[in-house]
Predict the structure.
Amino acid sequence: MDLAFGLLIGIGMGALIQRVRASSPGMIARNLRLENLSIIKFMALAIAVGAVASYVLAGFVPMHFSIKPTYVLGVLAGGLVFGLGFGLAGYCPGTCVVGAAEGRKDALFTLAGGLGGALAFTLAFPALERSLITPFNYGKITLADLIHLPPLGIAVGLALILAAFAFLAPTQLRRPS
Amino acid sequence: MPSASTSEAEPRFGRLGVGFGLLGAASIALFGPIGVSTTYPRAVGAMLERLFPSFAASQPYLVQIGGLVRPETAIVLGLVIGGLLASRLSGERAPGVELVHAHERSRALRYLTAFIGGFLLLFGARLAGGCTSGHVISGIMQLSVSGLIFGAGVFATGIPTAKLLQKGR
């Protein structure tokens, strides 16, 4: 059953990524160059709506939250390396799958590079675990653990900030060259 | 170069972003947060298991993440179907290749850049324990601190990389 739910969620995600043009590496590059903020705003709204919806739902049904551990060194280093790859490829691990599906050949190269990166990480894992993953691991912490307020309240506050950004900031900052 | 198209001038992020957020919350209600990047090493593991079973069994990371039969793998299959359907139904066909950076003067250079980018994406995502979907979107919607740190890291290098590679254009 969970496999069927996963498939349906994935189909919805793939369609939305394609429609918002997040599967275009040129569009991602324009967002990272801060010429056009449409994808960044799309992400901000998704986080805003998702945060409020999941913590409202949590009041009614059991939720499958799964907070990722905050091992500061590895999470930050991983983000910095990921950002380099994001800037170079113009894809992320999900959008290159959507890009490949809509016929982009460069997306297939990002997919292949991704399998290579996953293999390299697998081989390096024992050393990285010792140096970057085990030290400074604060466990599964959320903003509610830091700011002692009810999670739903924090979710609403975060959502208001992100929604204000999405609706008030300009989307097109510079004409594409 | 052609001028900005209508869709570029009036991007439609609003309803699409709301839809994506609802999907993320629905996923947490049904089975767990959305995530894409663990499927890559699981796919690598599945290939190695066929070719070099004892080597695959000796890799602690592959043992830790487990096999491919799980909802996250179904999400990745869904991405293929959803992307294909949306592109066919909308009639907006994607170009076969889009040149993105100033140095990409040929398709081969674009392919090379896309490959190196993909390598770094997955190495970074696995080191951090998630990617744009798992850490940034579903992580921050769960208010996780690691998602915020990862997101800050991504933009700290992603923005200067994209800006530097534009030079001279």
Notes: Chain A touches chain B through 130 residues (CB under 8 Å). The mean pLDDT of chain A is 97.
